[in-house]
Amino acid sequence: MDFSWVPAYTGLFLKAFGMTLRLGAIAVFFGTVLGLVVGILSTTKNRILKPIRVILKVYVELLRGCPLLIQLFMVYFGFPYMGINIDISLTTFLVFTLYSGAYIAEIVRSGIESISVGQWEAGYSLDLNYMQIMFRIILPQTIKLALSSLVGFYIGMIKDTSLASIIGYSELVRNGQSIMNQTGRPFETYIMVGVCYFIICYPLSKLVPVIERKAARYDRA
Amino acid sequence: MIELKNVHKNFGKLEVLKGVDLTVKEGEVVAIIGPSGSGKSTMLRSINHLETIDGGEILIDGKVMGGSAKQIKEARLNLGMVFQQFNLFPHLTVHDNIALAPKLNHRFEKEELEKTIDELLTKVGLLDKKNNYPPQLSGGQQQRIAIARALAMKPKYMLFDEPTSALDPELIGEVLRVIRQLADDGMTMVIVTHEMSFARDIADRVIMIDGGVIIEEGPPRQIFSSPKNERTKTFLKSILEREESVKEGLFTTAGIEIEE
Ligand SMILES: Nc1ncnc2c1ncn2[C@@H]1O[C@H](COP(=O)(O)OP(=O)(O)O)[C@@H](O)[C@H]1O
Ligand SMILES: [Mg+2]
Q1: Where are the alpha helices (DSSP H) in chain A?
Q2: Is B42 in the pocket of ligand 1 (CB under 6 A)?
Q3: Over the stretch A83-142, which tens digit does the pLDDT of each residue have?
Q4: Interface probe with B: pick from A114, A124, A125, most Cβ of B within 10 Å
Q5: What is the DSSP letter of B207?
Q6: pTM (2 decimals)?
Q7: Contact B87 A121 (CB under 8 A)
Q8: Checking DSSP bridges between strand B205-210 and strand B29-33, what pairing results, if any?
Q9: Which of A20, A68, B10, B208 can bridge A171 by disulfide, Cβ–Cβ 3.0-4.6 Å?
Q10: Could you tell me what percentage of chain B is helix, strand and coil, using 3-state DSSP and rounding each to the nearest 5?
Q11: How close is the Cα of B162 to the center of ligand 2, in Å?
Q12: pLDDT at B247 exceeding the cut of 70
């Protein structure tokens, strides 16, 4: 194995690393915001919101039931087909956010529904309103419960950013391909790419047990 | 004054309340007894609009319970509720469990709130647990915190739905003591309970519910020693038998009086 070419490509690796991080961060951050909104709305009981709940349900089920790669292709080929010009970065951000939003919505929804109805009743009997109960009582408990599955999903999402290389978003894998072409060292190149993913994902995976321990701290008599 | 007038409630096809009339005057302690599934909880929960009634009306201090969210919120301000399962907020400390609602409802100035919390915790004998989390407390302690939490909103009326039914027998006494103290302080209370000797001691009036209607009511002495209704007799007898068997050690269930 020969890694002597690596220093010459440090700049390119760092740039690609940054692009992967950026896509991952966007998918995680906006996906979480979107997922929280969709997840919360999905648990409402209000009759007026029924049509919205149906639409959200369709959104969540469709995106969860179809591979991310296919969704990327559909937008990548579909939009130009409809005469819409696409910007690769923007398209990628959009598809990743919608996809991760759908998954996180489901985590949030099932989390909220797992909280005992007694918590709502206690809140209402203390003269709190829906918003106060949701944001001060239900959601904090939901997030505490869902945190480790959320972080698990984030890690998966960051790994899945590699799929964006296929439609030309220049993240780690995409740049790895061109580095490989220039150096003629595929094995070493992909070791370097793998190391980059590991650097992001490993600390996150170490976070899970820390979170779980912290969450369990008050649960013992 | 809490007034129920010809209150009806259905769950789908199931008729749970079939015309309940009840008036609770200020300062009065009313005990609700009756077999499981007879509608006691539904009636109590209707009072603070945790259940929406299908017929009749409920008045709190002469104002109809129901209508807009704002009206319900206003009426609830007078009503505190204690649940069988405590329903403390597990992610908040004892202090924050009590402080949350008064804070969000701007019930007190900050200093006054802290003083009130300390007073309430002293009253229920748990000042030293102020910074603990609910899962760290015993059931009896949790229920006493739940009572303090309800009281922090300064309600005029307190509703208790089988406050000791989820407790181990040895923890029942400490909760009943707190409720008794409230009665001595003159709090108006409606208490659903299976603790018959407690009801006898504390209640001004006992209401017997069966099949979604009040079948008998009167002062505790009369209800417990000379019930008129056959079904009240049968019900009290079954409770007494259970208490006997507890004493004989056949069952370890609630229903036994611990207070001396
Ligand atoms: N949310 C609900 N949905 C359907 N049925 C219910 C609901 N709550 C109570 N019930 C039914 O109503 C009846 C009365 O219940 P409840 O008021 O809890 O009785 P009690 O408190 O006297 O034991 C029972 O048959 C119970 O199964
Ligand atoms: Mg009940």
Answers
A1: 6-42, 50-64, 68-81, 88-114, 117-125, 130-133, 139-160, 172-183, 186-216
A2: yes
A3: 888 899 999 999 999 999 999 999 999 999 999 999 999 999 999 999 999 999 999 999
A4: A125
A5: E
A6: 0.91
A7: yes
A8: parallel
A9: A20
A10: 40, 25, 35
A11: 7
A12: no
CB contact under 8 A, B101 and A128: yes
Give the separation between CA A78 and CA A83, rounded to whole angstroms.
9
Residue B256 is predicted with a pLDDT of 41
For residues B76-98, give the mean pLDDT: 97
d(CA A99, CA A149): 16
Q: In whole angstroms, what is the distance from residue B157 CA to residue B236 CA?
A: 27
What's the rounded Cα separation, in Å, for the pair B125 and B129?
9
What domains lie within chain A, and their CATH numbers?
A: 6-220 (1.10.3720.10)
Tokens of B143: 């229920």
Q: Which chain A residues touch B88 with a CB distance below 8 Å?
A: 122
What count of CB pairs under 8 Å joins A to B? 73
d(CA B195, CA B209): 15
For the Cβ of B39 lying below 6 angstroms from any atom of ligand 1, the answer is yes
Query: Which of B10, B41, B235 is the pocket-test mutation for ligand 1 (most atoms within 8 Å of CB)?
Result: B41
Residues of A in contact with B69 (CB under 8 A): 129
pLDDT at res. A208: 82
CA-closest candidate to residue B22, choices B51, B55, B47, B49: B47
Distance, in angstroms, between A55 CA and closest chain B CA? 27
Task: Give the ipTM.
Answer: 0.92
pLDDT single digits (tens) A27-74: 999 999 999 999 999 999 999 999 999 999 999 999 999 999 999 999
| Residue-averaged pLDDT of chain B | 92
The residue-averaged pLDDT of B235-258 equals 66
Per-residue pLDDT at B252: 46
Q: Which residues of B touch A117 (CB under 8 A)?
A: none
Q: Alpha carbon B254 to chain centroid distance?
A: 16
Residues of chain B in contact with residue A141, where contact means CB-CB under 8 angstroms, are 89-91
User: B142 in ligand 1 pocket by Cβ < 6 Å?
Assistant: no
One-letter identity of residue A65: G
What's the gap in Å between B2 CA and the centre of ligand 2?
Answer: 20
